[in-house]
Give the backbone structure.
Amino acid sequence: MAFDLKGRISIRDDGASKTIKRVSDSIGRAEKITSSLTRATDRLKTEQSRASANSARLKTALRGIGTSANYAGSHMR
């Protein structure tokens, strides 16, 4: 580390420069992972909504089948 004529600090240490680069790369990877997780979460929410709608349709269909079976059973001799 050295001071220039205006009193600013300049880093001339290769070790510090490499550390800064590694930290920067790590931040970039973390941002990519966060973005990927956000997309995966959105896909899961979509699938959950779809599954919920399918479940409701299935329950309605089964209720209809049960009603038809009860009706048919009550009219058997």
